[in-house]
Amino acid sequence: MLSVFAKIFTFLLALTFFCTAGAAENSNCKTLTASGNPEYPPLLWEDPVAPEQLTGAVTALLGEILESLGVKLEVQNLGSWARVQRLARIGELDMIAGAFITSERIQYMDYLLPPFTNLAASIWVPKDKVFEYRHWPDLQGKRGSTLINNSFGQGFDRYAEENLQIVGVRTIEQSFEMAIAGRIDYVLYERLQGQVKLQRLGLADEFVALDVPVSTEGLFFTFSKNSRCNTFEFRERIADRLYTLINEGRLDELVSEYTARYMFLQP
Predict the structure, then answer these.
(1) Pairing between β-strand 31-35 and β-strand 72-75 as defined by DSSP bridges
(2) pTM for the full model?
(3) How far apart are CA 229 and CA 95, in angstroms?
(4) Angle, nearest 10°, between helix axes 172-180 and 191-201?
(5) Could you read off the pLDDT of 53-89 as tens digits, one per residue?
(6) Cβ(115)–Cβ(178) under 8 Å?
(7) How far apart are CA 159 and CA 173, in angstroms?
């Protein structure tokens, strides 16, 4: 009988130690600040009710993960995508909710595995100005546009810098407007986001995405290397929960839900 009580006591002691260790691990991270590309529906966009915040399928997914870990999520709308990356670099932001891998970014951010989704980047053109596109060199001599500091994978980014003319703008609406006006030949933007954005803008019948994507890249949650929340143990706990939710299809459910929410926003 004594041995049974001893086993129970040992179990309770171990459980208490585990809970205490978990609390100590997160003692410096009661609230996690995150931001991302505000031009990324249905994954991320400016919250119409609270413009200082971002909403979307990705913030909902991250919120579910952090809630289970006892950490509050604060999703800030910091303006342009370029500014988001700059603030992550200097540690004024804990996490970016959605970034592709580049050699520059891995110098100031730690990436959480697995990627929560994979996105195809497309060449969007006005329907009356379609051209043949099979691979990157077909874009030489043409003018394109996308968001400032946007990445479409290390390989394409390097090729574009050396060979292509791509104008960076603050909002993707500007790129589509420039294409309609004939100032550029194509818009470089993710296929999912392009479909949602154009439908919302009432321009779905004006543009088409060319069949071959310029790239397909994994999209990751990333921690600023200067974040107080960025510990190996905390990253592992987030990654474990993320892996489970992705395998359960939770992000797909949230994408459907938030696509509907975005489409029914008042103009």
Answers:
(1) parallel
(2) 0.82
(3) 9
(4) 70
(5) 999 999 999 999 999 999 999 999 998 999 999 999 9
(6) no
(7) 25
